[in-house]
Task: structure prediction
Amino acid sequence: MFKNPFSNRVKKTISIYLGMHKVAICEEKNGQPTLIAGEFVQSDAEWEAVIKKLVIAHNLQWFNVSVVLSKDFYQTFDIDKPQLEEKELLATLPFSIKDLVSDSVFDLVVDYFDKPAQVRKKEQITVVCIPKSRVISIRDMLKNTELTLSVVTIEEMATCQLFENSGDANLLLYQHRNELVLSVVKNGQLYFSLRIRGYNELLPLPLDEVENVLIDGLSLEIQRALDYINSQLRIHTIGGLYLAIQCPDINLLADKLASYLDKSVQPFPEQYNYHFLFAYGGFDRGLAQ
Result:
């Protein structure tokens, strides 16, 4: 998304997820993203020390880095797409959000991605903005740890890279802080994202203790989302619903949701560490637009 024009192709690219309380590194092995290391931190002030330690431990010096940035460090805005040529659109993009941000647009790095068409809506884009100082600090931090910044991407784009390109929609239910997030990915694009509150604290408990509340509530929220994407996004075929959540009874939960929804529901592949899920999505597989 946000490319560094000064980076050189040195060795291969690794993916680093930078979260408020997490740092994780992935590399591709046999064509599959693989977690090298993940650590929890108190704040972003610990990023550099943790990354430096991991770079030395895993001999990653001078690798290119695709950074996946946590939602905590950028803003997004959905706006009608200006009818302009690409170069002109990119040049005027910062000024289209100047009334929506508190910072000067000259202090922001701004990019966008297209939103899928919706019924009775104009063509829209999602504008993404990151403080320029944040991007510079990430670049300098990586340089100090003997790495080279290649590109900065965001959680929404990383979500798309978790799935193979498919004409069927895939739904992913994952945890973000105290919320659940339901995302819909189709043809390498993020079609829809819904935040669900009130259930995260129930997931660690034995399912037989919270089944009525959890299953009834989640299935209702998911069914509403399915109805919306059917009517507004014209999505009629669902490939599957995947659960990337911390739940001791995740397989039983998947079975019960599948029964309620009459859809395929299964845990996200077990080789993925759900705590550091977005680190796996830092590799450009040519899917997201």
Remarks:
- The longest strand covers residues 32-40.
- The mean pLDDT is 91.
- The chain has three domains: 2-70+134-159, 72-131, 164-277.
